[in-house]
What we know:
Helix content: 10-25%
Number of strands: 15
Strand order of the largest sheet: 8-7-6-9-10-11
Structural class: alpha/beta
Radius of gyration: 19 Å
Strand content: 25-35%
Order of helices and strands: HHEEEEEEHEEHHEHEHHEHEEEE
Amino acid sequence: MALAGSLVAACLLCSLGFAQQTSSETVAAMRRAAPDALPLSNDAPHSHLRVDSNLVLIPVHVTTAAGTSVTNLTMEHFRLFEDNAEQKITHFAKDDAPISIGLVFDSSGSMHNKMRKSSEAAATFFKTANTDDEFFLVEFNEHPKLTVAFTPDAGEIYRRIAHIRPFGRTSLLDAIHLALGQMKSAHNLRKAIVILSDGGDNRSRFSASEVKNAMRESDVQVYAMGIFDPEEIRRKTSEEEKGPRLLDELADETGGRLYSVDNLDDLATISARIGHELRNQYLLGYSPTDGSRNGKFRRVRVTLCAPPDMPNLKSYYRHGYYAPAE
């Protein structure tokens, strides 16, 4: 699922019993200090995805075929195209800037036996956070709700997750739409939504196409942890059976990724991996050869010129942006 990133992000915390005993100070202590960003060219800009004074910035995450992050590439290893016209990359950096992160957390009835592991995954994710990051929490079951607005306090998110009592059906698309709206209040230029859910949508009033359009108009990367139980496939509705594909499409469009969780014991590891990916992205900047301000969607494509000793690299990035309108 190519960025946001990028979609995507992200957050989930220790076991419920442990969560109820742990203070916000403990959670805050888990968060590491923010390292300095590593500029690879002079005057590298801050990370965001929309056009800003004729400059477009695209975060790109690169991995080996096995999924390991690649962090030692240079500008010469990238080519960038907008609507099939090659663009000159003028800004390049390896970026670890602060991120505004929204956790979209499934609290529907089917999550009842998965809450402890989901909380553990949250704790693991917060260990990757920078001190300047900010977070919010959207829960969803029959309806989505913003439970915790933007806060620098990871412990506040932690305490809320510890008290979630799952019930009802799944309004996933409505929850994502609500999270995208909340992101308009973000203080950081880099933004990510992390979704944790065990199935597809069976309750929302927003359609998948409406949510995809809203995502294209935002600067948000989407990452998803999908807890899909193959043994439950026959009992699921058609919407739930389409859940993996839906999450994959949403994340891919933004430069994020979907991680399918076949074993609940893998949740914490996957959560840490998402946090690691958000901290190991390249930032490509260019001024479009088409300078028209027509408000149209422009497709972006990034290709890699891999070093001889690093074949079969994969890249994940946002697929496009809306040009500014007059």
